[in-house]
Every structure is written in structure tokens, then in C-alpha cells.
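Task 17 of the worksheet. Students: predict the tertiary structure of the chain below and write it out as C-alpha cells. Keep your answer in the requested format; marks are given for formatting as well as content.
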Amino acid sequence: MFVDKAEIILKAGNGGHGGMSFRREKYVPNGGPDGGNGGHGGNIVFMADDGFRTLMEFKYKRKHKAENGQNGTGGRSTGKTGDDLIIKVPVGTIIKDKETGKIICDLSENGQKYRVAEGGQGGRGNMNFATSTRQAPRFAQGGIKGQERTVILELKLLADVGLIGFPNVGKSTLLSVITKAKPKIANYHFTTIVPNLGVVEWRNFDPFVIADIPGLIEGAHEGTGLGDQFLRHVERTKLLIHLLDASGSEGREPLDDFNKINFELKKYNEKLAKRVQIVALNKVDLLSEPTETDELKAELEKLGYEVFVISAVTGQGLNELLSRTIQLLDEIGEVEPIFDFEPAEEMIFTPDFKEKQFTIEQFDHLFVVKAAFLERLINSVNFEDLDSIGFFQRVLKDKGVFEELERMGIQDEDVVQLEEIEFEYFK
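Model answer:
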């Protein structure tokens, strides 16, 4: 089965908690704090690998989690950093953030890597909180949670040339003749239900990749006939070969087909519609007179298109078509991506602990404080130690929590709730 789109859930590793420890050795009766820092959580990294062809494995495994960082320990030992999770995907995979719809990265080269979810920072051990007046801190800092996000993977095939046209115009037959590909061929609509790729090795020229894009029909840009899924695969092509059934064997008018397909391309993406396009009038072996294509060829040339008269079955005209294709690919060179791409800098993860935003909800004499930094702060506090509680109160004051509670009219003995912690308020 060919799978070219998948939605998965990512969870980077949490940072390890800082250690709370004191040096205890013989002949050292007053050893100071020596709790080490927690290790960073593992990142989730995507890597393009040309050994993969589809996104099939993500159809069955949707949740992916990196390793957590280990907690710091005594002896100033830093916890082990969590291993990164490397997720391999086919070359040509685009990764989008589900929530924003923005493209995170475009993995278009073999071996290319991109960090999509960042592991949390490790917390500081109690050795970092010793001062001249607080020589035995009995608290340490909690680790930050790793980033969680849902992403959408989309595979866009890496073809130099895209074959487009209505169903049954002979695209699969042409592909089978000029490459070693073996597409399924039959006389019914949407015979090709997945894009077929083939490598064309023509004479002594450099080989190029050609994709037979499954048939388009009216409304394809809106999803009719799965056309929007197929169109995704022609986004990277440098050149489009538009095949028309010159014989009219399907009972359609070739020029009308041509206009409808280009309308679908334009509706789907303006940039894609502007790709260099040449026209191949196929199935001329079914015509009684060779001159029957003259009028159609002239009409298309008036529109500015190069037109080739071919028969994929007999091989007529294929030399001319492929020679010109190779020449155009050399002339076109690299092409501009047709999809929007946000700079990577905008996707850098900022740990929640750095955010100073919080909200407070009041329910009579209960004030519920909600903030991203609270969980880590609470993990940092030893509520049986006065120094630790003092640190806890200073952080809340610095964040502006107490000031906001006063503004809301909190009174002595009102209850403040932070996560699972509740305490009575006293000025």
C-alpha cells in the first residue's frame, strides 16, 4: 500500500530533576550541597532516508516519544542526557504543524535532518543554590517538560518531469515504454491509483525521473476523484508533459480536456500552473489519417505550447519528445518551490518555564492560579524546608502573582490553589 500522508503525535523527552544532596565523607563533617543537575530530555529529529518509499509505518504507529533526561545525583553528578529519537522518512517528506498548518521543514535531500520537537532542559541541583547566607539549600530545580506537538507528514515525490492528463490518455503506457517501470494498465478510470515513478535513460544523456500522476478530472483541486492527493506529487517537477488522446477514443474533445486540466492546475496552485509545459498528442496510431492532428496541433501552438505527435504503443515521435524534454530540463535548471515555507527560525521551541504569563480565576474565597511554569516550580520546592519555601515565594512575587492577587482583592485566610498545592493567604 502506498501511503503519502500521515498524522502523528510527538513527545520530546522531559528534562531530569536537579539533585538534592549533601557531601558526606569521613573527615568532612560539614560537607556542602552537591546535588548535580538533571540531564536534558531527548529531542525528536526527522531524517530523510532514500531507503524509505512510503509513510506506511506511521499509519500503524502514531505516537513517538524520546527518552527523558535522568535526574542529577550526589557528588555533583549531572544526569544522563536522554537519547534523541531519530525518525526516518522518505526523501521528499514535508512536515507541517497541525495546529498552525505551517510547514516546519522540507526534507528534500537524502540524509537531511531537522529537529522538530525539543527536549526539556534539566533542572539545577541544590549545589547551584548555595549562597553565603544559605549554605545548605534543601531544594533543587525540577526539569522542564519536553515539547509535545502533533504534526502532519506529506510525501511529495521527487520527479523531474510530471505526466499529466485525463484518465486513459496513455500515461502509464508511455511510462512503461520509456522506463523500466511496470505500472498497472487497463481501460477504466483511475487505473493508476498511486503515482508511478520511473527513470528515463535516453541515449548518452543524464537520466531523469518521470512521474505518472494519476488521472485528473474536473473538481480535482477540491478533492473530486482524489485529485488533490495526486496533485501533491507534481509540485516538485520542473517540467510537465501534458498527454492528450488525439484519437478521441474516450469520446472527449482533446482541446477541451487540455483546458480543463490546466484549469485544475491553476485552481490548485498558481505557481504550479506556470511550470513549463509541453503537449504530446498520443494514440495517433488509432487515426486513419496522420493529418487529423494538424488542426489540434495548430490550435495548441497558437497558445504558445510546443506540441509533439506520438504513439506510446508504436514508439512514433518518442525520440523527438524525449530529446526536447532533456534539453528543456537542462535549460530550466532549479525551480522555485511552489508551496509556502516558513523560515526555520520561527519554529524554534521556547521552554514554557521562560514564559511569565499566568491567569487567576476567583471562586468566592478560592483563587486558582494557572501558569506554564508552576509544575516545574513546585517540583523545585521542599515544603518542609524554610529556605525552600522562601525561594518558592520569591519566584511567585517576581512573576507578579502576589501583586495580581492583591489587585483582585484577596483577603487573609483566602485559599490559593497552584496545581495540586493549596495554601491560605496571609499578607
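Marker's comment: The chain is about 20% helix and 20% strand. The chain has three domains: 1-155, 161-332, 353-424.
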